[in-house]
Every structure is written in C-alpha cells, then in structure tokens.
Amino acid sequence: MIKKRNQIWRFAGLLFLLLVLAACGQNSNIADSNKEEETNEGEVREVAHAMGTTEIKGKPERIVTLYQGATDSAVAFDIVPVGVVESWQQQPMYDYLKDDLEGVTYVGQETQPNLEEINKLNPDLIIASKVRHEEVYEQLSAIAPTVMEETVFAFKDTVALMGEAMGEQDRAEELLKEWNERVADFQSKAEAEFAEKWPYHVSVLNFRSDHARIYLTGFAGSILQELGFEPPKQLLDDSQDIIKLTDKESISEMNADVFYYFIQEEEAEQTFDEWTSHPLWKELDAVQADQVHQVDEIVWNLGGGIQAAHLMLDDIYDRLGLEK
Q: Which pLDDT score is estimated for 199?
C-alpha cells in the first residue's frame, strides 16, 4: 500500500514538473515574440531613392502621398494615407479611388502641396516625386522621413519604392508578380490572335485646343511598350517623349495600326473634328482598319498607379477582342 502511494506521489511530482517546464517554455516563446515585435518596431532601414537615402524606423502608419500614382498604389497595398494631394479631375479624387479614400485629408495640389497641412497630420512617412517636389525635399524631410520616386508615371518603380519604405516588401512583390503575369498573358494571346500582324504599331493621341500630341512614353506609352506594341510607323526620332503637331499637314506622323486618343478639354473638341475630317486623316492605317478608340484620360494618363495600369490593360483586352 505504501509502495503504491509512493508511486502516486512520484507520478504527481513528475506531472507537476512537466507542467512547470511547459509554462516556462510558453512564457519564453511569448517573451521571444514580444522581443521580435519590439525589434521590428525599432528596426531602422536605409531606403535609397531619387534624392539619396532616407532612414525609416519601424513600420510607418501615418503616410502622406504627394502624387497620383503613389495614392493609387497605396490603395493597392490596402493602406489609407492620412493625407493625399487632390486629383487633376473629378476633384478632389478620381472616382475609381473615392470609396477607398473616404475621410482622408487633402493637402493641396500635386504641384504645390501645403506643407503646413502636411505637418499638422504628424506623418511618419512622405511619398513624393523628384520631378514635382525636388525643391521642397528638405522641408518635407524636416516634417517626416521622405522618399522620392524619379517621376510620376513609373508605377512599378513606385510600388517597389513604397513597399520598401512602408515595410511591405512582400506585398510589393505580390503586386508586381500579378502585373507581370498579366503582361505575359496579354502577349501570348495577342501573338496567337494576330499572328504575323503582331506586334501592332500604336499611337496615343491627345487633342488640345490648338494642337495635337503623340505620347511615346509617359504612363500609357510605357505600358504599351511593355505589352509589345511598336511606336508610330513614321517615327524618325524615338528619343522624344512627346511629339507636338501644330498643323494638319503633319497628320501622317500619327500613322499606326491602332489609335488610342483622349481629348484634353472641351475647347479641343473642335480641334478633333477639324483634324479628323482632313483628307490625310482618312488615309491613316488605323482609320481605315476602324481601330480608332477614344479612351478615359484618367485611366490612360492621369491615374499613374498600378490600379490604373490594370484598368488600362482591361481596356486594351476589350478593344482588341481578347479574353481576359
């Protein structure tokens, strides 16, 4: 009986010891987890950008975006900035972003952000663009760590920079992978559908009140190049970003297999009517092939971010009759 009682006590003691060890292990894991979290919050990263290198501590939570492509891309990251600049049209924000940006504070224009309003928001990260904000970089950096993309339309560079600055590198890689997969899908379907006719030559046309333009680069032009489109057929100088046509005798410079155009303002409607009723217009390949498409300027030119890029690609799929 005594022997049996001793066995019970030894078993109870062993069980108690195991419970104590398990509790210690759990507390150790919690401590390690808390320590790791504190380390991440205090981690200092050096982020290279168009104006140099900026140190960013931890994961920013109060972000201000100062150009349209950065605002668009922030939403793609499922992040709502505390401050954004007003849109060029559909003010204060483009319709495709309004619902996701409800309640944000507007801090002026992209070309002239309000530094005082930005400071009031107490941001811990500012996303800006050298082409727009180089002159106020020092003032912005005095408010919060600031990183700058070189331009405003290189949406993939914007996504990569924002991912690094915000501590969202994994999400940035996902977004870019999704885009690259769609580009590859488009290229394979276009080659299969149009065979020896592919790649198409393309012109992105912008009609204004006193002239017309051909966009070779910029947001739309860069995406079309990535998709595999070729430039206008009579292009002699591919070093230009924009070709400005001031008289109708130069209409032949537009010639391509497909036209995507938008009209800058109401006054330009007359320009469009006059140019497209000219005999030279009717001789263009895209006109004769019925491949002249008016597009949404906000998506094709002003949005500037990865979401606008996807919308533009959707539009191209549809207009060429390809299955998405």
A: 97
Over residues 152-174, mean pLDDT? 97
Q: Helix or strand or coil: residue 122?
A: coil
Torsion of CA 108, 111, 115, 117, to 10 degrees: 10
pLDDT digits (tens, 9 = 90+) for 186-232: 999 999 999 999 999 999 999 999 899 999 999 999 999 999 999 99
- Could you tell me where the beta strands, DSSP code E, fall in the chain? 44-49, 52-57, 63-65, 83-84, 105-106, 108-109, 112-113, 125-129, 146-149, 202-207, 212-215, 242-245, 258-263, 292-294
Find the helix packing angle between 68-76 and 155-166, rounded to 10°: 60
For residue 229, the SS3 value is: coil
Q: How far apart are CA 296 and CA 319, in angstroms?
A: 13
Per-domain residue ranges for the chain?
44-167, 176-319
- The tally of CA atoms less than 13 A away on the side-chain side of residue 260 is 26
- What is the layout of strands, in order, in the sheet containing 63-65? 105-106, 83-84, 63-65, 125-129, 146-149
Largest CA distance in the chain: 116
The SS3 of residue 208 is: coil
The tens digit of pLDDT for each residue in 171-188 reads 999 999 999 999 999 999
* Shared fold status for 44-167 and 176-319: yes
Do 193 and 322 touch, CB atoms closer than 8 A? yes
Of the CATH numbers 3.30.70.270, 3.40.50.1980, 3.30.300.130, 3.40.50.720, which one belongs to the domain with range 176-319? 3.40.50.1980
- As separate numbers, helices (DSSP H) first and strands (DSSP E) second, the chain gives 14, 14
Pick the CATH number of 44-167 from 1.20.1440.230, 3.40.50.1980, 2.40.110.10, 3.40.1410.10: 3.40.50.1980
